[in-house]
Amino acid sequence: MSEDIANELRRKGLKVTPQRLAIMKIILRNGHYNGEQIYEELKKTEPSISLSTVYNTLETLKDAGLVNSFEANGMKWYEAKVEPHVNVFCIDMNEIIDMEVNVGSMVRDIQERGIDVKSLNIVVYADCSKLKVQK
Ligand SMILES: [Zn+2]
């Protein structure tokens, strides 16, 4: 997996560094993480890493198009899913889940008005307790 990530970094024109590899590995677990969570996770294996390094690395990865970021509940979140989708913030669980809905037509509508859409982030705040019962 490390070699795949390294190739992906190179393909985007980024140098392969241990920090970038380690952060990509966490992000690729397909969850939604804030900078603090990634920092806490990384500290276990790399005690010398700083929070600002984590944030700088995340922003570099985002600029390269490898991760998506958005704001929810007053925090910035990062994820591996870069395709437009809806993020549902479950207030009761303090957790974010991905929802596949047709946001493509929304993007096309906006583009038809001459706006060059760079990114689209929709956050829905919800009570997911009922969802949990269904599972
Ligand atoms: Zn998401």
Automatic annotation (TrEMBL):
Species: Sulfuracidifex tepidarius
InterPro entries: FUR (IPR002481), WH-like_DNA-bd_sf (IPR036388), WH_DNA-bd_sf (IPR036390)
A Pfam entry, by short name: FUR
Listed name of the protein: Ferric uptake regulation protein
Signal peptide: none
Molecular function per GO: DNA-binding transcription factor activity; transcription cis-regulatory region binding; zinc ion binding
GO biological process, one term: negative regulation of DNA-templated transcription
CDD domains found in the cross-reference section: Fur_like
